[in-house]
Specification:
The protein has helices spanning about 10-15, 65-75, 105-110, 150-165, 170-175, 175-185, 230, 235-240, 255-260, 310-315, 350-355, 395-405, 420-425, 470-495; strands spanning about 5, 20-25, 35-40, 45-50, 55-60, 75-80, 90-100, 120-135, 140-145, 245-250, 265-270, 280-285, 290-295, 295-305, 320-325, 335-345, 365-375, 385-390. It is α+β, with helices and mostly antiparallel strands and about 500 residues long. The protein is elongated and about 80 Å long. The model is unreliable at about 220-245 and about 460-503 (pLDDT under 50).
Length: about 500
């Protein structure tokens, strides 16, 4: 169940501080504009000023979408989702302001000592609404470490800016970070203005990056140890100029289709056209839900949630962006931009894609996306995680709801069933746009194919880790106290005349 707050509660502020990454979603107002979704994972980049304002260091990337969208309409949504510990999804809906590198506002937030290499702006967000949801479909991952490739490459590029202060030459300047901003960060993919002043700033980036810090190791890194790609600082600078450039495709290459099939989760971003509408971003992590039809079309099972934003936004304007980012192996970000179509549970189109034997409990729609553009970027700021397992809480919850529907005649709606939940929670978006139209009234009965296998287990501190009694001892003590209270308390109260003990 979603919970909304007018400000960020203190317990969520403390939780935010423990997270290793976040996602940023934004969108232009044009119905033809690209909805953007970007993962952010560099350590110590996100900051909470108070319960209504947050900010983060925006590092150099191959695009400038978030900055451009904020300049146009201000809308921005921050997402956190728990990979470790109890499940949780947190969204911060707000209005953003961009303070570029070299401005007084930027320097008041980001001193030279705390600035990250490649930092091009401070994004300040005035939070007008905070939302939590269950996160029962987000897989479990173990955090390994932060990647440092982006910081290393940006530091090398900035060294050319520092060198140009001493030896001014066009060749040196063109290798610097400001020249990169000029080449790639002045406009969004839709032509909206991006950076306005940072590229012309006379402030020279100061070097405070620890080049001796530990490099992240993954299974693929051994293949390149000692190679010219890894050992040469010059090649790293060239890599920054080339590798971080986004690559755009008119269709999904076969190599990326194979890569998609290996991923354990994805994220979906969508947005209404109204300037006051909530930009949405949702993590999706249930196994075998995402499918590639061909190089131009994909689809996924949309499972029941406390909201229905994606469906509502697709009904209004069609725009949808799918994001994959690599947590294991070589870094990569993949975005699929497309136009979505909603086929609700109970329709012929839904059943042709999702027969009963493959349907997940709680599946309410098939979201089919005609991909008009595919984009890859480096992913050098996405942390390294190890996949543990898929959570099953959402499936178990939905299975219980559907059991209530199965126990009721198809002509009736069980108030404890899934269809009643749809009718209560999934009819309209938070902005009042239409959501589910026919699924709540469908006469099709949900069949049970769910395997109630073992539940995923969270790591908890054992009695060896902390100075507390063992579980069995705790239960015994609790039982003894309960028995004592049950027998003694009524007799004590009877003496005061406030409680009567009956034989």
């Amino acid at each position: 169940m979603a919970k909304f707050y007018d400000e960020i509660p203190e317990f969520l502020i403390e939780w935010i501080k423990k997270q290793h990454m976040f996602w940023v979603a934004s969108a232009p107002l044009s119905p033809n504009g690209h909805v953007n979704l970007s993962p952010k994972g560099t350590a110590d980049s996100f900051h909470v000023m108070n319960s209504r304002r947050v900010w983060y260091q925006d590092l150099t990337g191959s695009g400038v979408e978030t900055i451009s969208h904020i300049r146009e309409n201000g809308r921005v949504t921050i997402l956190f989702n728990a990979f470790e510990g109890p499940p949780r999804i947190l969204r911060l809906f707000g209005t953003g302001t961009v303070y570029e590198y070299g401005t007084e506002e930027y320097e008041s937030l980001i001193s030279p000592e705390t600035r990250k290499p490649g930092s091009r702006a401070a994004i300040v967000i005035d939070v007008y609404q905070c939302q939590t949801t269950c996160g029962f479909a987000v897989p479990m991952y173990n955090f390994v470490m932060h990647r440092t490739q982006l910081l290393r490459m940006a530091d090398i590029a900035e060294s050319y800016n520092r060198a140009s202060d001493v030896i001014s030459s066009p060749e040196t300047q063109q290798k610097g970070i400001k020249a990169y901003w000029t080449r790639t960060n002045l406009r969004s993919v839709d032509g909206l203005p991006g950076l306005l002043t940072a590229q012309d700033s006379e402030v020279t980036p100061v070097s405070n990056f620890d080049k001796k810090s530990e490099r992240p190791k993954s299974q693929y890194s051994k293949l390149r140890e000692g190679s010219a790609w890894q050992s040469s600082g010059a090649n790293l600078a060239i890599s920054f100029a080339l590798v971080t450039m986004a690559k755009l495709y008119d269709e999904i290459p076969q190599s990326l289709i194979e890569w998609i099939k290996k991923q354990h989760m994805f994220w979906v971003a969508s947005a209404p056209l109204g300037p006051g509408g909530h930009v949405n971003v949702s993590p999706k992590g249930t196994a075998d839900c995402f499918h590639v039809v061909n190089s131009h079309q994909v689809w996924y099972q949309d499972l029941t949630g406390s909201g229905v934003e994606t469906i509502s936004h697709i009904r209004e304007n069609g725009r949808i962006t799918i994001l994959f980012n690599s947590f294991e192996g070589p870094p990569r970000i993949l975005r699929l931009y497309g136009i979505g179509t909603v086929y609700e549970y109970g329709t012929q189109e839904y059943e042709s894609l999702i027969p009963p034997e493959t349907r997940k409990p709680g599946s309410r729609a098939a979201i089919v996306i005609d991909v008009d553009q595919c984009q890859t970027s480096c992913g050098y700021a996405v942390p390294i995680y190890n996949f543990v397992t898929h959570r099953t809480q959402l499936l178990r919850w939905a299975h219980t709801k559907e059991s209530s529907d199965r126990a009721t005649a198809s002509t009736e709606i069980n108030p404890k069933g899934l269809k009643a939940y749809w009718a209560l929670r999934n009819i309209s978006s938070v902005d009042g746009l239409p959501g589910l139209l026919t699924a709540p009234d469908s006469k099709v009965t949900c069949l049970s194919v769910f395997d109630k296998g073992p539940r995923p287990k969270l790591h908890r501190l054992s009695s060896v880790d902390v100075n507390v009694p063992s579980t069995s001892a705790t239960l015994a003590i609790g039982f003894a106290i309960g028995a004592l209270v049950t027998t003694a308390l009524p007799r004590i109260l009877s003496f005061t005349g406030k409680f009567s003990v009956r034989a």
